[in-house]
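hey can u check if this looks right to u? its 385 residues, i copy pasted from the old doc so theres a chance i mangled smth
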Amino acid sequence: TIGVTAGAVVAGIMLMRQTSSRLKTADKNTASVSDLPVIDLKYYLNRDKYPEEAKREIAKVAEALHKFGCFVAKDPRVEEKHNSQFLDMLERYFSSSDGKTDARPELSFQVGVTPEMTEQPRNHCSRAKSFDKENKPVTICPPGADPKWRFFWRIGPQPKSTKYPGLNADPVIPDEFPEWHGVMNMWGNKMLAALDTLAGMAAEGLDLPPTTFQDMMSFGPHLLAPTGSDFSKYNQVDTALAGFHYDLNFLTIHGKSRFPGLYVWLRDGRRVPVKVPEGHLIVQAGKQIEYLTGGHVLAGFHEVVVSEATVKTIEKRRAEGKALWRVSSTLFGHIASDHSLRPLGRFDTPEARAQFPAIDAGQQVQKELEAIALDQGYGGATRPE
């Protein structure tokens, strides 16, 4: 069984105890997602036909990662009907899971289900206090446990040998979902293919050999990582479903959710409400690319909250008899666990090496998991000091 302390539960509930005035103001005053560049992968995928357009999109990826830490992408290989098939299945799963049978706490929850009030954001209170009033997070300080659920499903081939076997464990397949393997791999492989393409574009745009990031991602512990938030329980304005945090991996990619509520912070401190257009994806920089670029690209902060727009969508879907679980179609793209994270190419300066000393990607992940209260098993490897 999975134990959750009373303190964690109370702290999680306290996420809801923020005044709605700040969120209302933020919805009105923050930048629009339309400020973010849209990267069209069709030109890069057909660069022999569109050489100038491909060159332009490559430059846009590098600029967007540096300036914003995120961008919108359009991949002709990804269709909205596939996202819908994925969301339909996960809505049914989260509404029926007991949070125990498919959980693997001994593997740091890096496969299978993570129940609500388990994952806890790192304490970024000092960072949050640096924002002006209109751009502050809704998440309380210090943060409590998140009321969201999550399911981790490994995507892509696993390494034959690794120092971090627990981060490369076999997937968990829920018994009641015979279509699970096919649907998860369908969506996960589409997301991973998009990230692989974007990793090639990013490397080229950042003046690195074009396959640098793709080679480092090969055999990485990539995770299809949908979250589930139960709006029959957590439906009050200013409830933080996923507290203010950055992602520990290389790049994160999301499809369109059926409920609004995702907010991201740009490098200049603006809080942006994300509205993914139909058939588009949003990509965010994680901590591993921050290492590899010596801070030229920063891991992007974000949170998922219940806004007034979320409540309107809840009411509409309730009236239509539709599911009230907010599912994210998220994939975390990782650098392979045994690769060393260190500044590369033109980013390898004495200052960057001092700020980002070399560390195995697997150890970096384990340290981050420890900080967010998930690392109960340390991935089958030695506990990091």
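Confidence is low (pLDDT under 50) at residues 1-32, 375-385.
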